[in-house]
Amino acid sequence: TTNLESLACGTPVISFDTGGCAEMMSPACGYIVEKGNTEELLNKAREVKRNHKSFYSFHCTNRADKLFDKNERLQEYFSLYRVVRENV
Question: CB 3.0–4.6 Å: which of 1, 19, 27, 29 could bond 59 by disulfide?
Answer without folding.
Answer: 29
